[in-house]
From TrEMBL:
Transmembrane parts of this sequence: 55-73, 94-119, 125-156, 168-193, 213-235, 278-297, 303-323, 344-365, 371-399, 420-440, 446-466, 510-534, 554-575
UniProt keyword annotations, A-Z: Membrane, Transmembrane, Transmembrane helix
Stated name of the protein: ABC-2 type transport system permease protein
Coiled-coil segments on the chain, per record: none
Length: 584
């Protein structure tokens, strides 16, 4: 018990010192957004049916898949910190579990679990008394499921097959979460949530509050089993695994440009994190486009290729930061720049898969060929240009591959900025395809040459800007990669997407909400609804424009696009204004 309390105090002390400046603002904004989501969850406790059980299922899946997408989750206290103390795995796991309850995410989740208390009070005195231990046990289940999942994934990433398999599983889960409405429509009866969600581990607390007290015992048993599994996995956590290089052909390149391409292609095949990222992007694109088939919607199937390209760009948006100080080799070669080589290697690794996926998925439903091919060519060029440009313009210091610890997903100490860069990359890459998509919608096959032209211009133009930036600021970027500190200030780099410290709490909340939810009106309610309207598909699930009278369908869809752009624009404007004010 003393070890657990000590670890909890250590975690609390670290967080207390982190609640200052920009990082504190980011945590406050994320906490404010989480409180809003928790409040919405509590409201569901006043509704009939199984809506609260469904909401807790989403929270549980968020705990499981969220750390995978954001770099391995909270590792304020790492097992490696205590490796020299001789603690038994069970004691270490118990201590780290207690420390895991300290933080913004557990606090917000506990608030969301307050819906159990609401249901308990409505059930009577016994339900109210059971609600409190049910909340604690349910939160422990969420936290332990998250820890065990990340630990299992860390072991899987020790082999190429495991890295690919983990990417497939994670891609499917995240795509299902993104299309959760499909399952509500496909499995629901009369607008109600299917009853089986009550019997998932996320619903056991609700069952206990409603009188099935064996659910409390079931949660306690599950916690013991998960704790034992986590302890065993912690014992096996032993740093970075290195794949065998036996049987590899030596690299032979006649030019510096060719050497960069060969080096990058070797990295794509050997780096298990990149294997995981590519498998994740591919599976996400396929699953996200195919899931609506469950309710008879096939219009998203041709978008599998474009979605894969966009997700691959988002996952590799911090390419230079992830490679770390290996860039010094290029800097030590006079006149050398590896931007074009990286672009060609990225296209070689991603392009063929994206093209084949786009052709196969479009052929499966018989079109629309001009729209898909125009978007695919434009996205490939735009992504190849933006990946290099963003990674040098907004470089986030990463952990050198040779220094990665027992959690291979953790490639940077600044997970918030890395996640923000990934989301921003999704938006920017989509924008590069907008001209080709608009021409394809209006003039058909003319969109394809427009997509080829805009893709080539983005590849060349953004690559040129990245090359110039790398040539002019190479030593400074290397210093940032090596130390995490900018050479002019000597202060820790806070990441391009951290919220400036001079922003008010209200402004931070607005930026977080606009940045997190701007994609909802922009993509599904706007762009995808336009695709349905242009194809004559009406009254589809939650796409509001398809339910409107004829005169209002296109204005509503366009209005949602404008709203999404305005939300992103508001977030960017507030952020840039605060940045400029802080620089004065």
């Amino acid at each position: 018990m003393a070890v657990a309390l000590t670890m909890a105090r250590m975690k609390m002390s670290i967080l207390r010192h982190s609640m200052k400046g920009q990082q504190g603002g980011t945590m406050a904004g994320a906490g404010g957004l989480g409180v809003l989501l928790a409040g919405g969850t509590i409201v569901l406790a006043f509704l009939g049916g199984d809506w609260l059980a469904a909401a807790y299922t989403v929270w549980m899946l968020g705990w499981i898949i969220g750390p995978v997408f954001s770099g391995g989750g909270d590792e304020t206290l790492r097992p490696e910190f205590f490796s020299l103390l001789g603690l038994r795995p069970q004691r270490m796991a118990a201590g780290l579990l207690v420390a895991a309850f300290v933080g913004v995410a557990p606090a917000v989740s506990l608030l969301a679990l307050g819906g159990l208390l609401v249901v308990g009070v409505r059930e009577g005195v016994a339900g109210a008394l059971v609600a409190v231990p049910a909340m604690v046990l349910q939160l422990a289940v969420f936290v332990l499921l998250s820890k065990v999942t990340v630990a299992l994934l860390g072991l899987a990433l020790g082999s190429r097959a495991g890295a690919i398999g983990a990417g497939v599983i994670n891609g499917v889960i995240l795509a299902f979460l993104g299309q959760i409405w499909v399952f509500m429509v496909a499995l629901g009866q009369g607008g109600q949530i299917p009853a089986f969600v009550r019997y998932l581990p996320s619903g056991w607390g609700l069952l206990a509050v409603q009188g099935q007290y064996l659910a409390l015992a079931a949660m306690a048993v599950l916690i013991v089993l998960l704790l034992g599994a986590w302890a065993a996995l912690l014992a096996r956590r032993a740093g970075r695994s290195r794949p065998s290089t036996r049987g590899r052909r030596p690299m032979r390149a006649a030019t510096p440009h060719g050497a960069v391409v060969a080096k990058e292609l070797r990295t794509w095949t050997r780096d298990l994190v990149r294997n995981h990222q590519l498998a994740f992007a591919f599976t996400y694109g396929v699953a996200f486009a195919a899931v609506p088939l469950l309710v008879g919607i096939s219009q998203l199937v041709p978008l599998a290729g474009p979605i894969f390209i966009m997700m691959a760009a988002a996952m590799t948006s911090n390419a230079y930061g992830a490679d770390g100080t290996a860039h010094w080799l290029t800097l030590m070669t006079p006149g050398a720049s590896d931007v074009r080589g990286r672009q060609l290697a990225w296209l070689t690794a991603v392009g063929p898969i994206g093209l084949v996926l786009a052709v196969v998925s479009t052929a499966a439903v018989g079109g629309p060929w001009p729209l898909v091919m125009a978007a695919t060519f434009a996205l490939l060029g735009g992504a190849a240009g933006l990946v290099t440009l963003m990674s040098v313009m907004a470089l986030i210091p990463g952990i050198d591959p040779r220094n990665r610890g027992g959690n291979p997903l953790r490639t940077s100490e600044d997970d918030g900025s890395a996640t923000g860069m990934a989301y921003l990359m999704l938006v920017l890459v989509a924008v590069t395809a907008a001209p080709a998509v608009l021409v394809a919608l209006r003039y058909g096959w003319w969109g394809v040459p427009v997509g080829l032209l805009t893709g080539a211009l983005c590849w060349w133009g953004f690559g040129l800007l990245a090359e110039r930036r790398l040539t002019a600021k190479g030593p400074e970027l290397l210093h940032l990669m090596r130390t995490g500190r900018r050479p002019d200030s000597g202060k820790p780099a806070s990441g391009t997407f951290d919220l400036p410290g001079n922003m008010s709490r209200t402004q931070r909340t607005i930026v977080m909400i606009c940045g997190a939810f701007g994609a909802i009106p922009l993509v599904p309610q706007g762009i995808i609804a336009m695709v349905f309207l242009s194809d004559g598909q009406l009254r589809h699930s939650w796409f509001l424009a398809t339910y409107m009278p004829p005169a209002l369908r296109w204005p509503v869809a366009i209005g949602f696009v404008v709203l999404g752009i305005a939300m992103y624009g508001t977030a960017l404007w507030l952020w840039s204004r605060a940045k400029k004010a802080a620089a004065r």
